[in-house]
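Re: [ENG-882] Designed sequences occasionally contain unexpected residues at chain ends

Forwarding the minimal case from QA. Structure tokens:
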């Protein structure tokens, strides 16, 4: 018996080792892909930030000169300020709209699936097409609503051509594109809240706003936190709507860090400076990710 017991134990240990090895082998393809398309390009970008390179000739090491050039560049600070404005706007308006709409869908008796499809529809349309639709149907002085109002005698201007409104006009397009996605995500999270808690609050006489504040929002706090972190990351990566609608103009009023990096790399042939801008963008994403990981660690330790 002792010998048989030791034999069975050894067999189980060997089986566990083999299973653990197989699990690690399953991770190899994903690891190779991530190293190839994420880690290596990221390291190359960081290294290029310390070189002067036009994309053709031999790179020249210049240390922190690219970062010093960004520090002295007023367009960089304007682009960074626009990204911060964009982030502040998207951390408030679309998240509030998504939460409110998701809560209304939760209490609705019928039609929630229909509205989810309608709200989510902009997310499955290419952003370039969405930008062109808004440009032609809303902003255009010839074919858009803006032009129709001008012909009716209203003193309107093209918001894309004004330095005071161009950034917010672009943000409106992206907001319309983004808030429905948040609504669907929040609605899925709200449906996981135990119905007993909701019914108990209703029996106690809780109003809609009390139900939202004291029951629903605390229950989906991890989802809200994740979406806010993703919003910060994507706000600093915004490129397509800005480039299609204004290319950062007029007079750099809607310039963001991504379009600035693109301009430096492909217009000015300052690849090293563009890489430095990319490093700055990555730092904000890294800060947001670190904050989320710390929040998750606190939640798990409670």
């Amino acid at each position: 018996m002792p010998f048989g017991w030791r034999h069975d134990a050894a067999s189980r240990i060997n089986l566990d080792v083999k299973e653990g090895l197989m699990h690690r082998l399953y991770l190899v393809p994903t690891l190779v892909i991530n190293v190839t398309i994420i880690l290596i390009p990221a390291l190359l970008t960081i290294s290029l930030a310390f070189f002067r390179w036009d994309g053709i000739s031999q790179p020249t090491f210049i240390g922190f000169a690219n970062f010093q050039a960004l520090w002295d560049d007023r367009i960089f600070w304007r682009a960074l300020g626009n990204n911060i404005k964009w982030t502040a706007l998207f951390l408030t308006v679309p998240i509030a709209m998504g939460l409110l709409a998701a809560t209304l869908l939760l209490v609705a008796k019928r039609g929630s699936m229909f509205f989810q499809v309608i709200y989510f529809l902009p997310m499955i349309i290419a952003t370039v097409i969405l930008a062109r639709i808004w440009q032609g149907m809303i902003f255009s002085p010839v074919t858009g609503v803006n032009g129709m109002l001008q012909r009716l005698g209203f003193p309107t201007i093209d918001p894309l051509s004004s330095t005071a409104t161009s950034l917010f006009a672009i943000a409106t397009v992206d907001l319309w594109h983004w808030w429905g996605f948040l609504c669907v995500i929040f609605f899925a999270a709200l449906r996981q809240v135990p119905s007993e808690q909701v019914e108990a609050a209703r029996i106690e006489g809780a109003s809609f706003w009390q139900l939202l504040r004291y029951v629903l929002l605390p229950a989906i706090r991890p989802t809200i936190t994740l979406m806010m972190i993703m919003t910060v990351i994507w706000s600093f990566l915004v490129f397509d709507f800005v480039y299609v609608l204004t290319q950062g103009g007029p007079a750099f009023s809607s310039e963001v860090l991504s379009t600035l990096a693109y301009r430096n790399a492909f217009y000015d042939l300052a690849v090293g400076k563009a890489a430095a801008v990319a490093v700055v963008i990555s730092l904000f994403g890294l800060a947001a990710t670190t904050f989320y990981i710390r929040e998750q660690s606190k939640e798990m330790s409670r």
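QA comment: On inspection the terminal residues look reasonable. Residues 89 and 276 are 26 Å apart (CA to CA). Proposing we downgrade this to a documentation issue.
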